[in-house]
């Protein structure tokens, strides 16, 4: 039996990268004021000067590349609902805060496997890649990762 | 017309880790504060409780729990939840009742018995809860965010892990002189460097623990204090509990992304939410950083204490490490920060923490802090920040 791929949160990123346009985070944009939201805001624009409502918020793919605003790592196993196998030794992963120039916002994400804090630097260009958060009996839970462009320094 | 209220009394239960019911710590702190005020519990007009924290959200309804534990006596009651700022919002609620003339006196209490280890979100499948999502999707704990801020300081200002360790050494030295602190042992830079990394570049001794503790403050109108012949009472001159202004451009707990600055330019690019919280307190009190004798700030991490120096306006952005290295923020320095020992020596008992900051300032401006006394202290400020866009700053004056 093959396990199906399931996004960790529905609607936050493109499900099937093969479907043209590549793998992208999906936000929303307010037609009224141009504000962009990620995670997606579907009900009311959060710009206090704008009364944009449900019909004014349209889906928009976010930039595929950005620059590292800062980074850190998780040396200890995070508590639930983060899923990890307690029977296996903990393997730290890096977390990256990435500045998207076009959207003028910062989006956090885990670094791609194999990218540790020693491979990262503030200001470095990184790109969005599809990743796997964890797997269970029924699903491969998918997410997004940030990876240094050109393999890092 | 003065908008000051008097601090009649303060009290704390020592910080530690016992796992007893939170009301025990709260009642002990409340009785200590009432005794300090010379006020009978039955004469208190309003009791305000800062709610406990469970999974990022309010746990026990604290106001009524404390009122019952102290013995129902018919007072007005309120409970507030504002994460790390809960104690300050409770104080602000009490102050507003007094200034509106609804009551003469109020007892404000915060206490908690914190779970061990990382603060974790509420259980179940809760994809509509940003606090649940950050753990589910990223495994982003509180130290994750502190690590991001610390690394950013290193890249922007050239701070080093040794600088961060210096904050711990300073605060541990102050905490060693505070009988209410949980950790009362001096710490060396070598000990910080030898502790395991939690969230690069921060090590275990850079990050504050979670604790049990309780703190209480008795407030009254200035008229009430005068009638009781309290000639020169300690006063609360400002309580800031302002929300952020859109767009927020710095990643903050529990969010996975910042606001976009595409539609609206950030109000002031250099000044983030923390400095806005403090600035509102300064404006309300009619003071500036140059008027301060001391400050109690929320050092959730050593590096975050350095951010606060700049947010308080004690130095320009990037100047915090120089201030620290010069000894200006240590006991005996020009502007001591965290003379109590800070969260570094206490560990965080969330609803009690903002009130504990006010207790420390009150003892300091009364000149009763013994070996931790800041000479001639008359004006102090507290500052904190926590989950969900909460922050607070209180100005205490004598
Ligand atoms: Zn809008």
Automatic annotation (TrEMBL), chain A:
Record-linked InterPro entries: ChsH2_Znr (IPR022002), NA-bd_OB-fold (IPR012340), Thioester_dehydratase-like (IPR052513)
Protein name stated in the entry: Uncharacterized OB-fold protein, contains Zn-ribbon domain
SUPFAM superfamilies xref list: Nucleic acid-binding proteins
ChsH2 rubredoxin-like zinc ribbon domain: residues covered: 24-53
TrEMBL record, chain B:
Residues of the Thiolase C-terminal domain: 278-397
InterPro entries, A to Z: Thiolase, Thiolase-like, Thiolase_C_2
Gene Ontology molecular function, alphabetical: acyltransferase activity, transferring groups other than amino-acyl groups
CDD domains named among the record's database cross-references: SCP-x_thiolase (cd00829)
Pfam family, one: Thiolase_C_1
Domain of life assignment: Bacteria
Keywords of the record: Transferase
Name of the featured protein: Acetyl-CoA acetyltransferase
Species for this entry: Actinacidiphila glaucinigra
């Amino acid at each position: 039996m093959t396990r199906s791929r399931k996004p960790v949160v529905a609607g936050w990123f493109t499900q099937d990268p093969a479907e043209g346009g590549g793998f992208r985070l999906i936000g929303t944009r307010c037609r009224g004021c141009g504000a962009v939201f990620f995670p997606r805001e579907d009900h009311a624009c959060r710009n206090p000067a704008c009364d944009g409502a449900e019909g004014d918020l349209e889906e928009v793919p976010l930039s595929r590349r950005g620059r590292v605003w800062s980074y850190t790592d998780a040396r200890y196993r995070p508590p639930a609902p983060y899923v990890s196998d307690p029977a296996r030794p903990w393997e730290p992963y890096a977390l990256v805060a990435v500045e998207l120039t076009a959207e003028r916002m910062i989006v956090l994400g885990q670094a791609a496997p194999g990218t540790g804090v020693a491979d990262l630097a503030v200001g470095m260009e990184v790109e969005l890649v599809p990743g796997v958060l964890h797997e269970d009996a029924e699903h491969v839970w998918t997410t997004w990762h940030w990876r240094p462009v050109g393999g890092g320094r | 017309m003065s908008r000051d209220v008097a601090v009649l009394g303060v009290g704390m239960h020592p910080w530690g880790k016992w796992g007893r019911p939170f009301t025990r710590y709260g009642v002990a702190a409340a009785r200590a504060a009432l005794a300090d005020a010379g006020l009978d519990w039955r004469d208190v007009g309003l009791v305000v409780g800062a709610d406990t924290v469970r999974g990022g959200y309010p746990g026990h309804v604290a106001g009524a729990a404390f009122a019952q534990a102290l013995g129902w006596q018919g007072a007005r009651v309120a409970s507030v939840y504002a994460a790390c700022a809960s104690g300050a919002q409770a104080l602000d609620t009490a102050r507003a009742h007094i200034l509106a003339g609804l009551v003469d006196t109020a007892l404000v209490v915060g206490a908690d018995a914190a779970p061990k280890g990382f603060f974790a979100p509420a259980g179940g499948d809760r994809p509509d809860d940003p606090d649940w999502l950050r753990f589910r999707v990223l495994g982003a704990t509180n130290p994750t965010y502190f690590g991001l801020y610390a690394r950013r300081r290193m890249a922007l200002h050239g701070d080093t892990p040794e600088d961060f360790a210096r904050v711990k050494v300073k605060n541990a030295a102050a905490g060693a002189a505070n009988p209410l602190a949980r950790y009362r042992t001096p710490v060396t830079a070598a000990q910080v460097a030898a502790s395991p990394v939690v969230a690069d570049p921060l090590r275990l001794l850079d990050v504050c623990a979670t604790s049990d503790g309780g703190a209480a403050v008795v407030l009254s109108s200035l008229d009430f204090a005068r009638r009781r012949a309290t000639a020169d009472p300690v006063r609360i001159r400002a309580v800031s509990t302002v929300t952020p202004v859109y767009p927020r451009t710095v990643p903050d707990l529990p969010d996975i992304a910042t606001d976009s600055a595409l539609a609206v330019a950030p109000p002031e690019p250099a000044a983030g939410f923390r400095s806005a919280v403090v600035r509102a307190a300064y404006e309300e009190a009619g003071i500036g950083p140059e008027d301060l004798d001391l400050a109690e700030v929320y050092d959730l991490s050593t590096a975050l204490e350095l951010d606060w120096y700049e947010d308080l306006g004690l130095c320009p952005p990037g100047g915090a490490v120089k201030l620290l290295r010069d000894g200006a923020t240590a006991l005996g320095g020009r502007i001591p920060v965290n003379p109590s020992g800070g969260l570094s020596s206490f560990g965080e008992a969330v609803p009690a923490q903002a009130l504990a900051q006010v207790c420390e300032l009150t003892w300091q401006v009364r000149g009763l802090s013994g070996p931790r006394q800041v000479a001639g202290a008359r004006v102090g400020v507290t500052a904190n920040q926590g989950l969900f866009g909460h922050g607070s700053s209180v100005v205490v004056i004598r």
